[in-house]
């Protein structure tokens, strides 16, 4: 069959906990519905092509209503177009068709974050983590967003647990999570400060500054101010 319910088959070859090779297998055919799906998928992340992507993805959905990935991709298009209700519908439909679709769980979590529905977002992000693996960038995106949601709910211990895992991950420069490393250290510092662990918070803020400069980013103004204040207080205590 040209379309399974999932619409995508993933294979990872892992040896000694290292990713050796990965394969993403999608339907291939000269049939119009398959070609429309592949066209829509290729346009999803192209700036200014959202309308074309949505039109292309409408075709496989109309022909094959149980295609989970087509709904997920269209959900991301609607999200980028700020059609959040439509995005929520598409992601939910994708999840109902294939519970293991991590992309759909992550996408719907983003909609909940927009709505500031933090608990709902955390629940979906936990599912995204369940159905993805640490060798996928989306796994760490879900982990980072989950930490953010915990911070919004003042669940600092839970946020800190997520940020510590992220901080230990050596992201390569071509990984989309690489640019968020300074943010991770900043939020870790915020969580530690909220928990009264001021020495550790200062270390996290120092690391934020170092990681930001390493990426030619500007350190967060609020972080540098808090870092200076904590450093002064530590000096007074030591003196």
What does this structure look like?
This protein is mainly alpha-helical and 239 residues long. The protein has a domain at 154-239: Serine Threonine Protein Phosphatase 5, Tetratricopeptide repeat (Alpha Horseshoe), CATH 1.25.40. Helices cover 66% and strands 6% of the residues. It has eleven helices and two strands, in the order E-E-H-H-H-H-H-H-H-H-H-H-H. The protein has a two-stranded antiparallel ribbon. Strand 1 (9-15) and strand 2 (18-25) form a beta hairpin. Helix 1 (32-43) packs antiparallel against helix 2 (50-63) and helix 9 runs antiparallel to helix 10 (198-214). The longest helix has 18 residues, at 221-238. The radius of gyration is 21 Å and the shape is elongated. The model is unreliable at 1-7 (pLDDT under 50).
Task: Give the gist of this structure.
The protein has helices at 32-43, 50-63, 68-80, 84-97, 102-114, 118-130, 137-152, 156-168, 181-194, 198-214, 221-238, and strands at 9-15, 18-25. With 239 residues, the chain is mainly alpha-helical.
């Amino acid at each position: 069959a040209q379309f399974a319910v999932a619409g995508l088959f993933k294979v990872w070859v892992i040896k000694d906990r290292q990713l050796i090779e990965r394969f993403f297998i999608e339907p291939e055919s000269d049939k119009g519905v398959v070609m429309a799906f592949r066209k829509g998928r290729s346009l999803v992340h192209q700036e200014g092509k959202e309308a074309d992507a949505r039109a292309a993805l409408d075709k496989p959905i109309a022909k094959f209503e149980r295609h989970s990935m087509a709904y997920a991709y269209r959900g991301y298009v609607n999200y980028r177009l700020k059609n959040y209700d439509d995005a929520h519908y598409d992601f939910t439909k994708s999840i109902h068709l294939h519970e293991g679709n991590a992309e759909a769980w992550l996408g719907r979590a983003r909609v909940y974050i927009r709505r500031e529905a933090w608990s709902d977002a955390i629940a979906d992000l936990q599912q995204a983590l369940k159905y993805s693996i640490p060798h996928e960038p989306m796994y760490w995106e879900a982990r980072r967003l989950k930490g953010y949601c915990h911070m919004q709910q003042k669940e600092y211990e839970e946020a800190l647990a997520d940020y510590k895992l992220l901080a230990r991950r050596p992201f390569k420069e071509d990984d989309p999570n690489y640019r968020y490393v300074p943010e991770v250290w900043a939020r870790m510092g915020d969580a530690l400060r909220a928990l009264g662990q001021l020495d550790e918070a200062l270390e996290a803020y120092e690391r934020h500054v170092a990681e930001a400069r390493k990426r030619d980013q500007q350190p967060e103004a609020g972080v540098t101010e808090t870092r200076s204040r904590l450093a002064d207080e530590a000096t007074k205590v030591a003196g």
